[in-house]
């Protein structure tokens, strides 16, 4: 017995070891420039620091023109309250702010291992948790300070407490889980889905009703109170407005299910390793082939640089979905019910409810998918041998995830470098500087003193400069009456430091954060610049 345990030890992974490994992988990105929606969360944190009870009482330009933050930001504010706390001592310095978010990522790793140990054999639990944590969806998202990784942390904490609570005499853990679910719901509204998920599991597992079930009312009551508070402040219920916005039209003329499969497969990557061991997974491999064929048939609608990734990622997503379903059927117990509802509830939200498909919305899906697949592989001797190879699949997945994280950091850094270089030089001349483009670029331009261009007030003063970030959101053409007055001064290109693109707003290739930018989460086909910048001066109006 001791010899057998000794042989298994190298394949084991403790929660503490997983947390340290994730922290070590993310530490090099502590100095990453603020990126994507980090800007919004930081702006809210500033408001909260000044007016803690009025987090959304300001106007902000995150589109064509400044609008009330109640309409601009349709997420609950807990993440920004944490940022306001961090800001008090970090003063928005990137290194300290990112390090303050590192405990969320480390806790996700520890909780993933702890949950996996309760739902799988210990050796396969380590493999499943490692596969879920090594994927680019988690590691790239963890290099930002948005609400997605904190939501995942609270979600996993809620699930873990529920798993503890179904043990005899441990029902009080439901109240700890309720606190985690409440935090999840106040971090992102999707976090409220944790309540019915865990309630269904508890009832299916214990078939008992007791007073501790009242804990499941905590998150709905807090969210209801917040909803009525938002109504008193803004005139509408903020959670309901968020739902209405999320149900907006999808921009791409591509089957939504395939886009979801592409982001699921690309965000995990490790299912590709299973394609090389199809024995015992014939039905799942058939689903992968079907997804690949369907993707190939629709490839004409996909930008040419991303077509190869489109087919490969769709096949991986189809395979992962099929192995998850097969895993649920192989061991149809209460735990399978929990994992199935967890996975497919997340997929339904990310693909049918959320305003766009993106890896951030899919983050809660990767661990249950890995666990269901592990439970399937545990059911046969050949599958168990396949599980023993998962660490070898996780290693290249991790390496590729780090490359993608470097590419993402490169795009973020391009906006910071432009603001601190050419834009700062222009501002030193004393002339007004305006800019077009959002994300982290906006944060750094505003910090230097530049002002966002207002499409409803396009008449800029003569001599002003207009700076445009092209690989960005909100870069619509300028109004015609201003366009005739713009004179090109400089066109600057920021090279991509890594051989991958996660956001290609110019060529519709890759859309890690928004599938409107491309139907694959990342692409190696056409390596776009990290960003391109245009500096234009405003000439005097032509005489009438």
Describe this structure in words.
With 544 residues, the protein is mostly helical. It has a domain of 127 residues. It contains 24 helices and 7 strands. It has a 5-stranded mixed β-sheet with strand order 4-3-5-7-6, with helices on one face. A two-stranded antiparallel ribbon has the order 1-2. Helix 23 links the parallel strand 3 and strand 4. Helix 7 packs antiparallel against helix 20, helix 10 packs parallel to helix 12 and helix 17 runs antiparallel to helix 18. The longest helix is centred in the last third of the chain and has 39 residues. The chain is globular, with a radius of gyration of 24 Å. It starts with a helix and ends in a 6-residue tail after the last strand.
Shape: globular
Ranges where pLDDT stays below 50 over 5 or more residues in a row are 1-10
Number of strands: 7
Average residue pLDDT: 89
Strand portion: 5-15%
Radius of gyration based on Cα positions: 24 Å
Give the spatial strand order of the biggest sheet. 4-3-5-7-6
Largest sheet entry: 5 strands, mixed
| Distance between the amino and carboxyl termini | 94 Å
- Give the helix level as a range of percent: 55-70%
Class computed from helices, strands and strand pairing? mainly alpha
Oligomer class: single chain
Question: So how many helices?
Answer: 24
In short:
With 544 residues, the chain is mainly alpha-helical. The chain has helices at residues 2-8, 15-26, 38-50, 69-72, 78-90, 94-119, 122-134, 136-141, 148-165, 173-185, 194-206, 218-234, 238-246, 256-268, 271-274, 282-297, 307-330, 334-353, 359-362, 366-377, 381-388, 390-428, 439-448, 480-483; strands at 59-60, 67-68, 433-436, 451-452, 465-469, 486-494, 531-538.
């Amino acid at each position: 017995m001791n010899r057998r345990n000794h042989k298994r030890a190298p394949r084991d992974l403790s929660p503490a070891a997983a947390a340290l490994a994730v922290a070590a992988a993310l530490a090099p990105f502590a100095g990453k420039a603020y990126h994507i929606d980090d800007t919004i969360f930081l702006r809210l944190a500033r408001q909260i620091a000044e007016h803690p009870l009025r987090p959304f009482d300001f106007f902000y330009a995150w589109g064509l023109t400044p609008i009330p933050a109640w309409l601009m930001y349709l997420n609950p504010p807990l993440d920004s309250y944490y940022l306001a706390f961090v800001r008090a001592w970090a003063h928005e310095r990137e290194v300290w702010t990112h390090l303050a978010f590192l405990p969320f990522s480390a806790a996700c790793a520890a909780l993933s291992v702890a949950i996996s140990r309760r739902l799988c054999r210990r050796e396969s639990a380590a493999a499943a948790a490692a596969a879920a944590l090594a994927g680019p969806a988690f590691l790239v998202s963890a290099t930002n300070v948005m609400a997605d990784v904190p939501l995942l942390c609270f979600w996993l904490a809620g699930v873990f407490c529920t798993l503890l609570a179904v043990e005899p005499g441990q029902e009080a853990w439901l109240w700890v889980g309720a606190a985690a679910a409440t935090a999840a719901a106040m971090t992102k509204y999707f976090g409220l889905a944790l309540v019915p998920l865990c309630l269904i599991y508890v009832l299916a597992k214990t078939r008992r009703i007791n007073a501790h079930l009242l804990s499941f009312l905590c998150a709905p009551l807090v969210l209801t109170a917040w909803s009525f508070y938002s109504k008193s402040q803004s005139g509408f219920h903020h959670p309901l407005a968020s739902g209405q916005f999320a149900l907006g039209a999808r921009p791409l003329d591509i089957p939504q299910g395939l886009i979801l499969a592409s982001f699921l497969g690309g965000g995990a990557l490790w299912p590709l390793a299973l394609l090389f061991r199809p024995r015992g997974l014939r039905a799942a491999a058939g689903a992968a082939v079907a997804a690949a064929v369907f993707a190939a048939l629709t490839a004409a609608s996909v930008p040419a640089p991303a077509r190869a990734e489109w087919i490969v990622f769709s096949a991986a997503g189809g395979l992962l979905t099929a192995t998850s379903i097969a895993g649920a059927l192989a061991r149809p117990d209460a735990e399978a019910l929990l994992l199935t509802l967890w996975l497919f509830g997340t997929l339904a939200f990310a693909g049918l409810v959320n305003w766009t498909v993106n890896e951030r919305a899919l983050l809660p899906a990767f661990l249950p998918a890995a666990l269901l697949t592990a439970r399937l592989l545990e059911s046969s001797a050949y599958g168990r041998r396949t599980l023993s190879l998962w660490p070898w699949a996780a290693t290249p997945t991790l390496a590729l995830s780090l490359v993608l994280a470097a590419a993402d950091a490169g795009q973020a850094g391009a906006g910071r470098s432009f603001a601190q270089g050419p834009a700062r030089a222009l501002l030193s001349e004393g002339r007004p500087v305006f800019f077009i483009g959002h994300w982290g670029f906006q944060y750094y331009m505003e910090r230097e003193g530049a002002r966002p261009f207002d499409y409803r007030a396009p008449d800029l003063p003569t001599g002003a400069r207009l700076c445009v970030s092209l690989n960005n959101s909100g870069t619509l053409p300028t109004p015609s009456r201003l366009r005739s007055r713009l004179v090109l001064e400089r066109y600057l290109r920021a090279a991509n430091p890594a051989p991958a693109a996660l956001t290609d707003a110019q060529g519709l290739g890759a859309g890690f954060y928004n599938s409107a930018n491309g139907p694959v989460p990342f692409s190696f086909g056409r390596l776009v610049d990290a960003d391109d910048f245009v500096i234009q001066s405003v000439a005097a109006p032509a005489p009438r």
